[in-house]
Amino acid sequence: MTMTMTTILLTVTVLVVVTSKVTSLPMGEVRDLTYNLGNTTVFWPGQPPYNFTILHRGYLQQNSQIWVEFNAVGMGEHGGTHIDSPAHFVKGRWRTHQIPASHLTGPGIVLDVSSKVKDDALYAVTREDFRQWEEEHGTIPDRAVVLVKFGWGERYPDPKRVFNTEHPEDPSTYRFPGLGRDAINWLVENRKLTALGVETASPDVSNASDFPAHTILLGNDVLILEYVANLDTLPPRGFHVIIGVIKLEDGSGGPARILAISGAEAAGGYHVPNAVVMVVVAMMAAVSVGGRGGVCF
Ligand SMILES: *[C@@H]1O[C@H](CO)[C@@H](O)[C@H](O)[C@H]1NC(C)=O
Ligand SMILES: *[C@@H]1O[C@H](CO)[C@@H](O)[C@H](O)[C@H]1NC(C)=O
Predict the structure, then answer these.
(1) pLDDT tens by residue, 204-251
(2) DSSP for residue 49
C-alpha cells in the first residue's frame, strides 16, 4: 500500500513537472541577455559603426613561444545591447560614470506583448497590460528591471527586420512597437523601477516624435536598455538582472553585458521553482500517507 501510494505520487509528480510550461529558471542559472558586439552590430543611422582593428596577432618576438593579441575598438555609444544614461535625453542628469552601482541591478520581470505586436507592428504598451501582468504575477517589485517582450529578438541583427523597413537608412520609414505615454506615466508614478528594457532600438514606438518613454523614464532616473537579447528564455519573474555597462566617463550610455540570474535569494526570497515545491509536497504526502514506510522510496 505504502509503496503503491508512493509510486503513484512520484509518477504524478514526474508527469506534472515534465508537462508543465517552464515558468522558472533552475536555481543559480545565468542567462545572457546580450548580443555579440561585432561587424553586424546594429546602430541608428549616423552613429559611428563598430570599428574593430587588429593591432597585433603574433609571437611576442622572433623565437618567442609567447603568443600575443591586442586590438583597438571604436564605436558610437548607442549600438547593439546597450543602455541609455539619464543624460542621454535629460539635461543635467546622470552620465554613465555617475550611475550608482546599486542602480545597475534589480529583480527582473518580463511583460510579454508579442501576441499583440503580431497584429500591430506599431503597438504601444498600455497601463492595462501592466495591470493584467500584476493580476497574474503579483505587484511589480521595488527596484524592478522591467523587460518588455515584443517577440522582436529573432529579427536581430538584420537592419531591415529590426527597423521593419526597406530603408534602414531613413528613420521616418521605421515601424516598430514601444510603450505608450499612459503606461510610462503609470510606471514612474506607481512603481519603483531601476531600468526598463526592450528588444528593439527604442522603448518609444517608432512613430512617437515626442519620445515619452525616453524623456519620462530618463527624467526619473530609470535607465533604458535597448536591444536586450534572449527574452524568450526568461520566466515572467523570479530572477535578478545585472546591467554591466562599461563605466564610460561622461558617457550618455554605453555597451552593456546584461545578465539574468535565477534563484530565490536573488529574487528577494519571492520565488521558489515549481518543481521544487512539487517534489517537497509529494514527499510530505508520501510520508504522511505511508507513515514510517513513507521513507522507503
Ligand atoms: C570585421 O570587419 C573588419 C574590417 O572590415 C575585418 O578586418 C574583420 O575581419 C571583420 N571581422 C569579422 C569577424 O568578420
Ligand atoms: C578604426 O580604428 C582604427 C584604430 O584606432 C583607426 O586607425 C581607423 O581610422 C578607424 N577607422 C574608421 C573608419 O574610423
Answers:
(1) 999 999 999 999 999 999 999 999 999 999 999 999 999 999 999 999
(2) P
What is the Å distance from ligand 2's center to 35 Cα?
23
Residues 256, 248: Cα–Cα separation, whole Å: 11
- The C-alpha atoms of residue 255 and residue 245 are separated, in whole angstroms, by 6
| Cβ contacts of 182 within 8 Å, gap of 6 or more | 126, 127
Measured between alpha carbons, how far is 165 from 277 in angstroms, rounded to an integer? 47
Query: b/e map of 221-230 (b: 16 or more CB within 10 Å)?
Result: bbbbbbbbbb
HSE-up of residue 286 (Cα within 13 Å, Cβ side): 23
Distance 52 CA to ligand 1 centre (A): 7
What does pTM read for this prediction?
0.83
Nearest CA to ligand 2 atom 12: 51
